Each structure stands twice: as structure tokens, then as C-alpha cells.
Amino acid sequence: MAQYKKIKVPSEGEKIGFKDGKLVVPDHPIIPFFPGDGTGPDIWRATKLVLEGAVERAYEGKKKIVWMEVFAGLTALKNYDKDTVLPKETLDAFKEFRVGIKGPLTTPAGQFKFVCLDCAAEMNDRPALCPKCKSEWITPRFRSVNVGIRQALDLYACVRPVRWFQGVPCPVKHPEKFNIVIFRENTEDIYAGIEFEYGTKDCQEVYDFLTKKMGKKIPFADSGIGIKPISKTGSQRLVRMAIRYAIDHKKPSVTLVHKGNIQKFTEGAFRDWGYEVAKREFRDQIVTEAELWDNLGGKMPAGKVLVKDRIADQTFQQLLLRPDEYSVLATPNLNGDYLSDAAVAQVGGLGIGPGANIGDGVAVFEATHGTAPKYTNKDMVNPGSLILSGVMMLEHLGWQKAADMVVSALERTIQAKTVTYDFERQMEGAKKLKCSEFGAAIVANMGGRALAAAR
Ligand code: NAP
After folding, report:
1. How far apart are CA 60 and CA 96, in angstroms?
2. What residue's CA is closest to ligand 1, atom 46?
3. Counting Cβ atoms within 10 Å, is residue 64 exposed (0-12), middle (13-18) or buried (19+)?
């Protein structure tokens, strides 16, 4: 076991193992977690209550999660030193214990030099206290901790199941038709993008290389330049995971989403490499769309997964107009970023969209929204996103009974119109609950015997 300085490894519980490409989950797995910044602690408390309630009820005390707190963002600054937002031992713990869960973290954007991790205020000097919220936790601008975790642990798939829960207010007429799992590449494309700022020597050199040496045309000389790498390795492992998921979960299709009509050697290559891995590794389990029409007269053989592709922009239309024709999407990084937020908006918004970052043998589950800093410590926001990420985590552990119990209880709670502010403002006759009350209501709606955790 790695040596940890600030992380306290619990004396009870066991590490999750990994054998023949599969997790080996003990009855008392140690799960690293951090609540996150801003509203993270509020949604984490509610999530913990709900997950513990479901596990205890589903397995009558035989199984139990043993939580192990690790640090990132504000809690890292408080526990390590004032400039460490992502300690190495946090990454070590996620790697060693294999399955973790996290709340949202502040990610500074823009050109300012410092950020307050309590309220996300941005400033160019480092005052002793934040001028906005008086917090002392001000840190120099840093690259996204979330991206840092994904890259350091090579969590190459960002997985987001998007479905509607009955009663959730949403902008479309038939949200029940939406049940799609998005696999978005998580390590390359713009996440590994290289940019050159207009006016710099480097940018001029790249410009000269492209225009003079390579003979390429750039419409205006006063351009910033970006390069996005998309690899065969990165594309194929992502598409492989998506197809395996579709086969394991008996999903009818996998759609490769790309912009290959314009960018042939990155986006178009993603599509081609995707079909290649599908045919090479899953030949008996898949049919491509071309084969369906050329060889099978449009009649899909039972039990097989259809592998098709769509251009990214028309996929947005398709998800609005004919969502029931799609079940699993595999996308490069940027397309998947846009698509997954748009998709979750269709079924009720970020407050209820779960997510996971998954690699080979390591996974970190997370709320997909940010820290919602204006609601910090107000016990107000919807914990649904983190709770449903916890459901994904339970499924990943193979604890399906507990996962199903959370989903049913969440549905009952929403159908009873007992919801947090974000849903209440859109639902006629609803009762507004605090974040913690919503968590407790879900536990109460699980039925079964009363729990210490829920009292
Ligand atoms: P945000 O935190 O997602 O919040 C934007 C708005 O979305 C909120 O004001 C709220 O809308 C709604 N919202 C978010 N979470 C909600 C919840 N749990 N329940 C109900 N409504 C919720 O986005 P942001 O304000 O752009 O970003 C704030 C910070 O979070 C930034 O530092 C950003 O970089 C970071 N961030 C982190 C992650 C991550 O850790 N994975 C992801 C995205 C952003 P109303 O105002 O309408 O109530």
C-alpha cells in the first residue's frame, strides 16, 4: 500500500481488487471521496445519506461502503499548503483503491491571476482575505483539477447516462423517449490541445511553418492557432468501451458522432478507427449500418448491436426530434462536451445529470455540474447529479439492488413533488425542500426498516 501523509486509510474495510480485466469487490470496499468546493459539501452529505441508506437496506448490513476522505481543491489547500490543489497522494489513493467519487471543484478561467476557492471570485492581486466573501482560501490560477485527475489517472471515457425521471420538469414533449448513454473521449482532442497566442513568437513560427513550408492557407494573419490531436489508440479504446457497454447492457446501437465531413484526419479518422475496432474485435456481435442496408435488407438480426455514425451537428437535431433511435453515443472530446450538456438539459438539467470518468481498472464518479458558488452553504441545491453518479458507482461495483433502490426512491420523491428549488420553481404545486431534506426524503421513500443514517 502507498504511504499516505494526510489521508487516513480506515482500519476497517478492504481494497477493491482487479483480476482478468474485472473488479473484485469485497463486501466492505474502501472508497476514496472528496465533497468538492462551493455547494459540494451540501450535495455530498445528502448523497452519502442516500447511498448508505440504500446499501444497508439492500444487503441488510452484509455490505457496507467504508469511506476514505481524500483532498482536492479547497480541502487540499487547507490540508497541504496554500498552493496545492491536487496532491499527488489523492491521485495515488484513487489509483490504489480503484473506485472513487467526487464533488465539483472550482476551475478558474480567464486571464486573472488568483481565485477564491470559497466563492470563485477572481482577482489579479492576492489579498489576505477575499474581498467578496472574506475567505482566506485564495490560490494562484491553476489548470482544471478535474482535467488533472482525468489525465493523471488516464480516465479516458467520460460516461454520462441521460434519461428522464417521471415528474422532472423539462422543455421537450416526450422526454420519456430519451434514454442514451454518452461515452465522451476524455484525454485528447481539445483536452490535449496545443494553442499559440496571436502576437507571440511561437505563434508566428507555427504560422510561417504552416503557410510557407506546408503550403496551407490561413485566412487572416492575425490568428491565434490551435492544434487538436485525435489518435487511433485514444479513439479505439473509447469506442471499444462503448461497444462493450452496449453488448453487456443489451443496448441496440452505438453511434459514432464526429465532424468528419470537415476534419477528415481527426474527426473522420475517429469514425473510421471506430468502425475498424468494431469489426475487428466484435465481429460476431455487431452489424454496421452499411452492412444492414447492403447485405441484410434493413432487417436487424436479433441480439446484435448496430454500429452507425452521424455528423455532430445533425446529432443535436436527432436527439431533439428522434431520441429513441439512439442508445449509446461514442464521441471525441469537444463534440461530447456540447452534446452531453445539451442532452441533459432536454431531460431536466444539470441538477440531475450523473457522470463518471472511467479508465482501465480505475473509475471516479462525479457530479456533472460545477460548484454553483452563489448557493455555497445554503443547503439548497439539488443533490440529484451526485446521487445518480453514486448510483452509477453502485452499478460499477455490481451492487445493482442498491442502485435500483436509489432510483426508485428518487422517482417516488420527485413524483410526490417534494423537490429542491430548481425543480420546485418549474413544478406547479410542488413543495420546496432543502438539499439535506431532499436526501432524507429519498431515504424515507426507500421503505424497509428505519436506519440510523436516516434518523
Ligand atoms: P455551475 O456551478 O454548474 O452552476 C451554474 C448554474 O447551474 C447554477 O447557478 C444553477 O442555476 C445551476 N446548478 C448547478 N448545480 C446545480 C444543482 N446541484 N442544483 C440545482 N441547480 C444547479 O456552473 P458555473 O457557475 O459556470 O461554474 C462554477 C464553478 O464550477 C467554476 O469554477 C467552474 O469552473 C466549476 N465547474 C466545475 C465542474 C466540475 O467540478 N466537474 C464542472 C463545471 C464547472 P441557477 O442559478 O439557475 O439556480
Report:
1. 28
2. 372
3. middle
Closest of 389, 327, 319 to residue 347, by C-alpha: 319
Counting from 1 in the atom list of ligand 1, the atom nearest the Cα of 386 is 18
C-alpha gyration radius of the chain = 23
Contact of 369 with 385, CB cutoff 8 Å: yes
Phi and psi of 303, rounded to 5°?
80, 0
Q: Given the DSSP bridges, would you call strands 30-34 and 66-69 parallel, antiparallel or unpaired? A: parallel
Query: What is the C-alpha separation between 433 and 332, in angstroms, rounded?
Result: 38
Ligand 1 nearest atom to the CA of residue 103, by list position? 40
Select which of 80, 191, 275, 326 is catalytic: 191
**What's the gap in Å between 423 CA and the centre of ligand 1?**
15
CA-based angle 154:264:310, to the nearest 5? 80
pLDDT of residue 455: 36
pLDDT (tens digit, 9 = 90+) per residue, 47-78? 999 999 999 999 999 999 999 999 998 888 88
Asked whether the beta carbons of 140 and 106 are under 8 A apart, the reply is: no
Q: Of the listed 337, 379, 421, 422, which one is catalytic?
A: 337
Would you say residue 116 has pLDDT above 90? no
0.85 exceeded by pTM: yes
Distance (Å, rounded) from C-alpha 448 to C-alpha 445? Answer: 9
Which residues make beta-bridge pairs with 419?
Answer: 432
Give the pLDDT confidence of 354-376 residue by residue, as tens digits: 999 999 999 999 988 889 999 99
The yes-or-no answer on residue 202 being catalytic is no
Evaluate: CB of 47 within 6 angstroms of ligand 1: no
pLDDT digits (tens, 9 = 90+) for 126-184: 888 999 888 888 887 767 788 889 888 999 999 999 999 888 888 999 999 999 999 99
Backbone φ and ψ for 354, nearest 5 degrees, come out as -85, 165
Atom of ligand 1 nearest to the CA of 144: 34
Q: Which are the contacts of 231, defined by CB distance < 8 A and separation ≥ 6?
A: 188
Return the half-sphere exposure (C-beta side, CA atoms, 13 A cut-off) of residue 216. Answer: 10
Mutate-to-test residue for ligand 1 from 119, 170, 371, highest number of ligand atoms within 8 A of CB? 371
